[in-house]
Amino acid sequence: MDKVMLITGASRGIGAATARLAAQRGYRLLLNYRSRADLAARLVEEIAAAGGQAEAVQADIADEAEVLRLFEALDRRHGRLDVLVNNAGMLEKQMRVEQMDAARLQRVLATNLIGTFLCCREAVKRMSTRHGGRGGAIVNLSSMAARLGAPDEYVDYAAAKGAVDSLTLGLAREVADEGIRVNAVRPGLIDTEIHASGGEPGRIQRLQGSVPLRRGGTPEEVAEAILWLASEQSSYCTGSFIDVSGGR
Ligand code: NDP
Question: pLDDT tens, 89-103?
Fold first, then answer.
């Protein structure tokens, strides 16, 4: 396969699991990360040792100039884009809405929403048949938080992911006849470091009893859904959502 996939936030967690699975399926990969150059470099080596092809590019997707630099690197190295996985995401310490200041809200929206928007924009410019492209697939990482609201934890993050759902629906319909499918995955409680960054490393243990499947999920289980939405196997899906949340 000569298909090129760009995954944002691929140094660890769901992004890294998606990169490993995509490499096994034969995609050529451009792996973005923000700060963990060590982990990104190790992942690139691991993929190469297994016979895959991947390169890592540092860029903070919250910064428009860095998004442009990331896509310029893609143009230089591959000259095409078949799949964009908008995986980069973050949250901040758990707190109630009345404690949140504007600076926090701006940071949370900048990565989770605006960064996703900017990467979609650059992907559409390259994929759309309207701009001479060959079409492609975009997979956004939303969250069950978009539906549940994340009260007492991070309503700001949940709101950003709710907006990612609207972006997914609107963009899917906007570019449907230009060869681009846009879908999203809504993970539930997945075992990554994101919970520690919210100040509660044991969050999954606390909440897993409320999950119908009675456990947290793995990054690999989310990667399977992402790869399906990226593939031709999902050719009649656009503006669709897969909840990978154990029934929560
Ligand atoms: P992690 O915290 O484990 O990893 C986050 C990744 O995103 C890292 O590679 C990090 O890079 C990167 N990143 C964060 N901010 C930026 C930025 N501004 N620019 C570029 N890269 C950035 O998160 P998960 O793997 O858990 O989450 C992946 C996605 O899934 C996110 O969108 C998240 O919101 C979503 N999700 C996760 C759930 C979960 O339970 N884990 C549940 C629902 C949704 P670096 O390490 O280099 O800083």
Answer: 999 999 999 999 999
- Distance of CA 183 to CAs 23, 35, 195, Å? 21, 27, 25
In this prediction, the residues of the chain whose per-residue pLDDT falls under 70 are: none
pLDDT for 1: 77
Strand partners, 113: none
Q: Which amino acid is at 150?
A: A
pLDDT for 58-86, tens place per residue? Answer: 999 999 999 999 999 999 999 999 999 99
The structure's pTM equals 0.98
Domain that holds residue 32: 4-244
Q: Distance (Å, rounded) from C-alpha 15 to C-alpha 237? A: 22
Nearest CA to ligand 1 atom 44: 143
220 CA from centroid of ligand 1 (Å): 14
CATH number at residue 110: 3.40.50.720
Distance, in Å, from the CA atom of 194 to the CA atom of 9, rounded to the nearest integer, reads 12
- Nearest ligand 1 atom to the CA of 161 is 34
Q: Is 157 a catalytic residue?
A: yes
Number of domains in the chain: 1
Whether residue 17 contacts residue 225, with contact meaning beta carbons closer than 8 Å, is answered with no
Report residue 231 as tokens.
């593939």
3-state secondary structure of 102: helix
